[in-house]
Design a protein that fits this description.
The complex is a heterodimer of chains A (about 140) and B (about 60).
Chain A lengths: L13 H13 L3 H5 L3 H20 L12 H15 L3 H8 L10 H28 L5
Helix pairs in contact in A: 1-6, 3-6, 4-6
Chain B lengths: L7 H20 L3 H30 L1
Helix pairs in contact in B: 1-2
Classes of the chains: A mainly alpha (about 140), B mainly alpha (about 60).
């Protein structure tokens, strides 16, 4: 027997989740802290900020959107979005003049990946914040 | 800002650690499951690290 479909819950209003998700983007772990998930918020903050700082200390490069062939566009635009997803960490480092050129070497390479991954992990944290704020998760 | 100079292995371990923490925190519903999943993810990363490392070693000839 096929399982009966559960009735779809109505989507939570924008005003309920938007502040938490916005704060989660700006400050990694901030959305969880706003929603009183202190332990998880602190862990996310430490992990994402730690990863971003390691990326900076490895002198990773920040991506900038570029035109050209499809692969160049995809890599650079995707990388830029990943960098931008780190919120205040990205904004501060750019405002304070961090501009590392893309140079050869495995440490720089890892640094670049650390910077992008910190942003992508923050996207996961934002999705989790959304689910908590909209009542889909504890 | 101080400069960090890590080997491939150290950098990959650090990457695995940070990623596992976040994966553990955001995916499961109880603290016990989160801890288990975080450790599981970290172990998977390390196993893949060694596995792919040996694969590249043998593939290189």
């Amino acid at each position: 027997m096929a399982k009966e479909k559960e009735p779809k819950q109505p989507a939570a209003p924008f005003g309920v989740w938007a502040p938490a998700v916005g704060l989660a983007w700006l400050i990694p772990g901030g959305g969880h802290l706003l929603l009183k998930r202190t332990g998880r918020g602190v862990l996310l903050m430490l992990a994402i900020t730690g990863m971003f700082l390691c990326g900076l200390m490895m002198r990773g490069a920040m991506f900038q959107p570029q035109s050209g062939d499809i692969l160049t566009i995809l890599i650079n635009t995707g990388g830029f979005i990943g960098d931008l997803a780190s919120g205040i960490l990205y904004l501060l480092s750019v405002w304070l003049g961090y501009a590392q050129p893309d140079v050869a070497g495995h440490v720089h390479d890892y640094g670049t990946k650390f910077l992008v991954t910190a942003g992508l992990l923050n996207v996961l944290a934002m999705v989790d914040t959304f689910e908590i704020a909209s009542g889909k998760k504890d | 800002m101080p400069k960090m100079n890590l080997s491939h292995f150290e950098a990959a371990l650090l990457f695995a650690l940070f990623t596992s923490v976040v994966m553990g925190v955001v995916t499961k519903r109880t603290d016990r499951d989160r801890l288990h999943y975080g450790v599981y993810t970290f172990v998977c990363f390390v196993v893949a690290l060694f596995g792919i490392g040996w694969l590249m070693y043998f593939g290189h000839g």
